[in-house]
C-alpha cells in the first residue's frame, strides 16, 4: 500500500462524511438501517470508523442520501477502497489494539497520562519485553516478541526526521517505582526516559505521590490530535478485553481540561529530570 494511505484514518474520514450526508438528509441511523435492511449498529460502526466500509456500502448509502454529484460518489468510493488496504501493523498478524495504532500512526500529537508504567513510546526493548511478559503471563513467547516488535516500530514516529510525533507524557511516580524485572533494567529505562525528554518534541512530567489526589486518579488515557482539521481529536482509554474511543467534542474537551490540570500539578520538566535521577540513585544503591 502507499505509505501515505492510512486505512484507519481513511475509515474515520469516510465515516464522518457519511454521517454528514445522513444528517443533511435529516435521517436517523435507524431510518437508514430500515431502508437498507441492515442493523442500526452497522450504520453506527460505519460512521465511527470501527468497521471496514465496502464500496457497495458507499454506493447504497449514497443512493439513500440521494447524492447526485458523481464526483462526490467517486471520491467516497475511492476512500472506501483505500480504507480496506492494510497498514504496516497488519504484517504482525492479529494485534488487539490495531485501531489505536492506526490512529497513532497518523496523529500529529499525543498527550498521555500513565499511572502504572512508562508509556510504550518511551520504553526500552528490555523493559517492554519484561512488562508484556508480566502483564500477559499466559502469552506465548512468540506472541510477546511480536508485541515488542510492534512497540519498537511504533517508536519510529518519535525518532522520525520529518514531522515526528509531538508527545507529552505525564507519569505517576508509581511508574518509576514499579520494579519491572530487575534494578539494572529500571536504571536503563529511567535513563532512557531522561534522554528522550531532551528531544524538542517530547515533554515528560512526573506526578509525585506527595501531590495526593489529582485529576488522573481514575486511570490511564491518551488524547490524539491530527494534522488535518477535518479529523476530530480522539480520547483513547485502554481496556483488558476492549478499548474505548471517545470522539464527541464535549468528551474530548473534558479530558483535555483534565489533562491541563495534570500538567499544571505535575513537576515541571527540570524538576522531573531531577526526580527521575534521584529514583535512579535509589535503584543503584
Structure description:
With 285 residues, the chain is an alpha/beta fold. Helix content is 53%, strand content 11%. The protein is built from 13 helices and 6 strands. The chain has helices at 7-25, 29-36, 40-47, 55-64, 70-83, 98-106, 125-135, 141-154, 156-159, 173-177, 183-197, 249-265, 269-284, and strands at residues 109-114, 166-172, 202-207, 221-225, 234-237, 244-246. Strands 3-2-1-4-5-6 form a 6-stranded mixed sheet, with helices on both faces. Helix 4 (55-64) runs antiparallel to helix 5 (70-83) and helix 7 packs across helix 8.
* Alpha-carbon Rg, integer: 21 Å
> Order of strands side by side in the largest beta sheet?
3-2-1-4-5-6
Q: Count the beta strands.
A: 6
Shape by Cα distribution? elongated
Could you say which structural class the secondary elements and strand pairing correspond to? alpha/beta
Through-space gap between termini: 51 Å
Strand count, sense and barrel status of the largest sheet are: 6 strands, mixed
Amino acid at each position: 500500500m502507499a505509505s501515505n494511505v492510512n486505512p484507519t484514518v481513511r475509515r474515520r474520514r469516510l465515516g464522518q462524511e457519511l454521517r454528514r450526508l445522513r444528517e443533511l438528509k435529516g435521517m436517523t441511523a435507524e431510518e437508514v438501517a430500515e431502508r437498507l435492511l441492515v442493523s442500526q449498529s452497522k450504520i453506527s460502526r460505519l460512521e465511527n470508523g470501527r468497521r471496514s466500509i465496502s464500496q457497495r456500502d458507499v454506493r447504497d448509502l449514497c443512493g439513500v442520501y440521494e447524492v447526485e454529484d458523481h464526483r462526490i460518489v467517486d471520491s467516497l468510493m475511492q476512500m472506501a477502497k483505500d480504507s480496506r488496504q492494510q497498514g504496516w501493523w497488519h504484517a504482525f498478524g492479529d494485534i488487539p489494539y490495531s485501531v489505536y495504532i492506526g490512529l497513532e500512526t497518523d496523529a500529529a500529537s499525543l498527550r498521555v497520562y500513565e499511572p502504572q508504567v512508562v508509556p510504550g513510546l518511551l520504553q526500552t526493548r528490555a523493559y517492554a519485553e519484561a512488562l508484556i511478559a508480566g502483564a500477559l503471563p499466559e502469552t506465548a513467547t512468540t506472541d510477546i516478541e511480536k508485541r515488542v516488535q510492534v512497540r519498537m516500530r511504533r517508536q519510529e514516529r518519535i525518532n522520525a526526521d520529518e514531522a515526528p510525533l509531538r508527545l507529552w507524557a505525564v507519569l505517576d511516580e508509581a511508574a518509576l517505582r514499579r520494579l519491572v524485572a530487575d534494578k539494572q533494567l529500571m536504571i536503563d529505562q529511567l535513563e532512557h526516559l531522561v534522554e528522550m525528554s531532551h528531544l524538542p518534541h517530547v515533554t515528560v512530567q512526573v506526578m509525585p505521590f506527595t501531590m495526593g489526589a489529582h485529576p488522573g486518579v481514575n486511570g490511564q488515557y491518551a488524547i490524539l490530535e491530527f494534522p488535518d482539521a477535518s479529523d476530530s481529536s480522539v480520547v483513547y482509554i485502554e481496556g483488558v478485553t476492549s478499548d474505548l474511543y471517545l470522539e464527541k467534542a464535549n468528551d474530548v474537551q473534558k479530558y483535555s481540561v483534565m489533562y491541563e490540570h495534570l500538567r499544571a500539578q505535575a513537576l515541571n520538566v527540570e524538576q522531573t529530570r531531577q526526580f527521575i535521577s534521584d529514583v535512579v540513585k535509589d535503584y543503584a544503591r
